[in-house]
Write a structure and sequence with these properties.
- With about 400 residues, the chain is an alpha/beta fold.
- It folds into two domains: about 130 residues, Aspartate Aminotransferase, domain 1, CATH 3.90.1150; about 230 residues, 3-Layer(aba) Sandwich (Aspartate Aminotransferase, domain 2), CATH 3.40.640.
- It is built from 14 helices and 16 strands.
- It has a seven-stranded mixed β-sheet with strand order 4-12-11-10-7-5-6, with helices on both faces. Strands 1-2-3-15 form a four-stranded mixed β-sheet. Strands 13-14-16 form a three-stranded antiparallel β-sheet.
- Strand 13 and strand 14 form a beta hairpin.
- Helix 1 packs across helix 2 and helix 5 runs parallel beside helix 11.
- It is globular.
- The structure holds pyridoxal-5'-phosphate.
C-alpha cells in the first residue's frame, strides 16, 4: 500500500528530486571525502590524512595535484584550451610521437580518445573491421569496460546479462592455460588480455602464455591486443608490458594515469594495424585535445626525468619483501600493481586499514586486497603500511 509521502513524491517531480540526491546512485563508495591531495596522501573533510594506496582507481600515477602536471595544464588552458581533430596541433603531434617513443615495442602510431573502455572499444572495432571476422577471444576474469564491445570482452556475468543479445560472440581462455591457446582459430578477430588481470585479483600472465598467444595469433591472423589500462604508463616498473618477453602485441590500450587524472584513452598500434586505418575509420571530439596532451607530456617528462619506472619496480620489490605480515599470506603482482592475499576476507582488512589511515582497494577475489599507489610514493609509506598490517588482529 502506498503511503501519503510516497504518493506525493510520485505525483510531484520536485518532491521526487528532493527525495533522492541529484547524482545517480550507481557507485558503492568509500566512507571518506577527500578535499585535497598532495602526492601520495589525501586530506579528507574531517581533517584526517590518508596514504593513498588506491590512487583513485590507479589514476593518480604521479600522486595528487602534481605540480608539473598542474603547471603544464594551466599554461595550455591559458594558451588554447581546445580545438578538435579537424585541425592539426603541434602539441597533439608531439604527444603522439612522445608516447610511441615511450612505449617502444614497434607501437608507432596512436589514436587518442578519452577513457579505457573507449580505447578498448576502438581497438576491438579496428580488429573486427580489418580482419572481417565477427568473434573475439578473451580471458576468464578479464575486465575491459562497459561499452558494448568492451563489455563483450569482459566476463563479469552481472554486467553482461542485461545486454547478452547485443554482445559479440566470444571464446574464453583460462589465464596461463597453454592448452587453451588452440581455441584461437581463423574466425577470431582479436584476443584481448590484461597482462596482469587486475580486477580478477592480480593474476599475472606468464611469459610462456603470452608467447604462445603471440605464436598462435600469428598462425591464425588474429590480432593480439594488450589492455594496459592498469599495467601501462610505468606502473609495473617498465613503460608497458608490450615488448617484454619478446612479445609485441598488435595494439596496446592505455588510459587511467596516463595524463594523471585528465581523462585520456589511447590505442597504440603497430604498422600492420595503422597502415590499414582509412580516413574516417576512427573519431572522437575530445580525444587528443591540447590540455590533455600537455598533461600527458608532463607525465612522460616526469617519469623519465625522475626515473620513476625504476622507482615503481623498487616499490614493488619492497611491498613483496615487507607486506607478508598480519593478515597477509602472500603478495602478488609487481611494481605498483600489487595484490595482498589475505587469510580472512579482504574487505575486513580494507576497513581496518582505512581506520589506520590507508586507502586500498578490493577485487573480484574476496581474499585479494589491491594496492595501486602512485609510482612516486615514498618508500617510507610501505613501512608504515607494514606497521598498520602488523597491528591488525
Ligand atoms: C583493465 C581495465 N580495462 C578497462 C577499464 C575501463 O576503463 P574506463 O573506466 O576508463 O572506461 C578498466 C577500468 O577499471 C580496467 O581496469
Amino acid at each position: 500500500m502506498m503511503n501519503h509521502e510516497m504518493q506525493q513524491v510520485l505525483s510531484n517531480p520536485s518532491a521526487q528530486r528532493a527525495a533522492r540526491p541529484a547524482l545517480v546512485d550507481t557507485y558503492a563508495q568509500f566512507p571518506i571525502e577527500p578535499v585535497s591531495g598532495n602526492g601520495a596522501t589525501l586530506l579528507t573533510r574531517d581533517g584526517r590524512e590518508y596514504w593513498d594506496f588506491y590512487g583513485g582507481h590507479a589514476v593518480a600515477l604521479l600522486g595528487h595535484s602534481h605540480a608539473g602536471v598542474t603547471r603544464a595544464v594551466t599554461e595550455q588552458m591559458a594558451k588554447l584550451t581546445f580545438y578538435s581533430n579537424v585541425v592539426p596541433l603541434e602539441i597533439r603531434a608531439r604527444a603522439a610521437e612522445r608516447l610511441c617513443r615511450f612505449a617502444g615495442a614497434d607501437l608507432n602510431s596512436v589514436f587518442f580518445c578519452n577513457s579505457g573502455a573507449e580505447a578498448n572499444e576502438n581497438a576491438l572495432k579496428l580488429a573486427i573491421q580489418q580482419t572481417g571476422r565477427k568473434r573475439i577471444a578473451v580471458l576468464e576474469g578479464g575486465w575491459h569496460g562497459r561499452t558494448l564491445l568492451a563489455l563483450s570482452a569482459t566476463t563479469e556475468e552481472k554486467l553482461r546479462a542485461p545486454f547478452s543479445d547485443l554482445l559479440v560472440d566470444s571464446v574464453r581462455l583460462r589465464p596461463n592455460q597453454l592448452n587453451d591457446v588452440d581455441k584461437l582459430d581463423a574466425g577470431i578477430a582479436a584476443i584481448i588480455v590484461e597482462p596482469i588481470l587486475s580486477i580478477a585479483g592480480i593474476v599475472e600472465l606468464s611469459a610462456e602464455f603470452l608467447q604462445a598467444l603471440r605464436r598462435r595469433s600469428n598462425q591464425t591472423g588474429t590480432y593480439l591486443i594488450y589492455d594496459e589500462i592498469q599495467t601501462g604508463a610505468g606502473r609495473l616498473g617498465r613503460p608497458y608490458v608490450a615488448g617484454a618477453f619478446n612479445v609485441a602485441p598488435d595494439m596496446s590500450t592505455s588510459a587511467k594515469g596516463l595524463a594523471n587524472g585528465m581523462p585520456i584513452g589511447a590505442v597504440l598500434m603497430n604498422e600492420r594495424v595503422a597502415s590499414r586505418v582509412k580516413a574516417g575509420d576512427l573519431g572522437s571530439t575530445f580525444g587528443g585535445g591540447p590540455v590533455v596532451c600537455a598533461a600527458l607530456l608532463a607525465v612522460l617528462d616526469t617519469i623519465e626525468r625522475d626515473s620513476l619506472c625504476e622507482h615503481a619496480a623498487r616499490l614493488g620489490d619492497a611491498m613483496h619483501q615487507e607486506l607478508v605480515v598480519g593478515p597477509v599470506e602472500r603478495v602478488l603482482g609487481r611494481g605498483c600493481l600489487i595484490g595482498l592475499r589475505t587469510r580472512g576476507p579482504a574487505k575486513a582488512v580494507q576497513q581496518k586499514l582505512l581506520d589506520a589511515g590507508f586507502v586500498t582497494g578490493t577485487s573480484a577475489d574476496s581474499n585479494v586486497l589491491r594496492l595501486m599507489p602512485p609510482i612516486n610514493t615514498p618508500p617510507e609509506a610501505v613501512l608504515l603500511l607494514r606497521n598498520a598490517l602488523c597491528a591488525i588482529q
